[in-house]
Amino acid sequence: MTLTKTEIEKLRELEESLWRPETRFNYEYMDKVLAHDFFEFGRSGRIYQREDTLGASGTQINAKLPLRDFQIHQLTDDVVQVTYVSEVDDEELEVGNRSSIWLKVEDDWQLKFHQGTAVAQ
């Protein structure tokens, strides 16, 4: 089964919402978006659990949107991998290769796993 244009747009919207402070630091929103067993390998090398992400305090995120080189790789009918390059201006430009695994749950998507890998400048 191929993703519809609407599903592709929804996945981009969801992924970009993780870079927008108004959604990234909204507990109720993130509680719906993150799978119950979500975890992340951060760009720093640190491992984050769902509780760490839900408990993060709000700060400004200076990410460049839309996300660069955004691609969706369909793994199964209900599982996709999203990849892109993040660019965050935090006193100096931080670039990372990013990968997210999204699961289709009923009629929506939940984030199961995310990984950020630093890119040498």
Helix and strand topology:
Blueprint: H1 5-17, H2 21-24, H3 27-33, E1 34-41, E2 47-49, H4 50-54, E3 68-76, E4 79-90, E5 92-105, E6 108-118
Parallel strand pairs: 1-6
Antiparallel strand pairs: 1-2, 3-4, 4-5, 5-6
Describe the protein's architecture and organization:
With 121 residues, this protein is α+β, with helices and mostly antiparallel strands. The protein contains four helices and six strands. The chain is globular, with a radius of gyration of 14 Å. The model has no long low-confidence stretch (mean pLDDT 95).
How would you sum up this structure in a few lines?
It contains 4 helices and 6 strands; from the N terminus they run αααββαββββ.
Strand order of the largest sheet: 2-1-6-5-4-3
Report the order of strands and helices: HHHEEHEEEE
Q: Determine the N-to-C terminus distance.
A: 39 Å
As a percent range, the share of helical residues equals 10-25%
Number of helices: 4
Instruction: Let me know the average pLDDT.
Output: 95
pLDDT under 50 segments (min length 5)?
A: none
Derived from helix and strand composition plus strand pairing, the structural class reads: alpha+beta
Number of strands: 6
Key features of this structure:
121 residues, alpha+beta, six-stranded mixed β-sheet, 4 helices
